[in-house]
Amino acid sequence: MSLFYIAVSIICSLSVAQFLKIAETKKIGVFKILAVNYLTAFFISYASSSEKYDIVDSMAALDGWVYILAGVLGIIFIANLAVYSRSIDRIGMGISIAAMRMSLIFPIALSLWVFNESLVWIRYVGIVTAFIALLLMLPRFTKKKITGISDAWLPLLIFIMTGFADSGLKIYESVYSAEISEGLFLSGLFLVSFIFGMGVLIYRRDLKFSAIEIGYGVATGIVNLYSSIFLIYALQSMPGSVVFPIINVCLVILGTFVGIWFWNDQPTKKQWFGLLVAIISILLLVG
Fold it and tell me: Which residues, 6+ apart, have CB-to-CB distance to 9 below 8 Å?
């Protein structure tokens, strides 16, 4: 079942990216979509939680660090997607993807050195091969130059926030999953994301939502929720040091083909070679 969980998480993550890509193309308010997305994810995850009928007792028994973890991750989740969207627009796809995909070093290091996960040597080779594949598959850097200090920080912010987000889910799975179900934990996380998003929109005085923004937000929220849920399921049945490289490499592979089919992207020879290396890395990691 581990590979099934990984596959569903990958498909959902790719769907989130495509919804945001379409929104950017149609000039729809991305931050409004993100706010509705997290409200939708909150309602669904809470409704599916086994503790929803005794929520007061369940929450009273929790370690205080669970609240801190959910709160911090909630802010990171929505901020990271907003920064990623801006980075693609201001700096370019190549640098932005590099920052996001290379951040998998955070959860891998956490899995190996903090939670002492053990791997056979061939999977270490697979991890190294996955990094090589990701570097090879990065798109061409755009000619748009970084225009200021604030823009220059965007790739670093993506790198750090994506790494922290994935690491936070790993911490939940390893330390707190016995205390609180993934449904209730994620509902709290998504509620924080929604509140933070609405706070930003209130500050901007931009609270008028169109029907298309709500529609895209609901659709994004459904797949966003299940990308996180099935990632947690995968982490419960397979080492994180294996799960994260597989997911990142597969996202780039599928993203490449979706780009060809729907966005008329033209991969370079280097990227096609990267796809081959990625397939090899996946075989090593799951072998």
Answer: 226, 227, 228, 230, 231, 234, 247
- In whole angstroms, give the CA distance from residue 174 to residue 153: 31
Handedness of CA 16, 17, 22, 26 (dihedral sign): positive
247: which residues sit within 8 A by CB, 6+ positions away?
Answer: 6, 9, 10, 13, 231, 234
pLDDT digits (tens, 9 = 90+) for 135-168: 776 666 555 555 554 666 777 788 889 889 989 9
- The single-letter DSSP state of residue 174 is I
d(CA 72, CA 172): 12
Q: Are 278 and 160 spatial neighbours (Cβ–Cβ below 8 Å)?
A: no
Q: Which two tokens stand for residue 64?
A: 């205080």
Segment 163-197, tens digit of pLDDT: 899 899 888 888 888 888 777 888 889 999 999 99
The DSSP annotation for 186-244 comes to HHHHHHHHHHHHHHHHHHHT-----HHHHHHHHHHHHHHHHHHHHHHHHHHHS-HHHHH
How far, in Å, CA of 42 to CA of 56, rounded?
17
Query: Tokens at residue 10, please?
Result: 């990958």
Place of tokens 């990691």: 285
CA–CA distance, 251 with 247 (Å, rounded to integer): 6
CA distance 39 to 98: 29
Give the rounded distance of the alpha carbon of 93 from its chain centre. Answer: 16
Other residues' Cβ atoms within 10 Å of the Cβ of residue 171 = 19
3-state secondary structure 62-92: CCHHHHHHHHHHHHHHHHHHHHHHHHHHHCC
Please state whether the predicted TM-score (pTM) of the whole model is above 0.90.
no
Q: Are the CB atoms for 153 and 212 separated by under 8 Å?
A: no
Q: Please list, in sequence order, all residues whose beta carbon lies within 8 angstroms of the beta carbon of residue 126, skipping any fewer than 6 positions away.
A: 242, 245, 281, 282, 283, 284, 285, 287
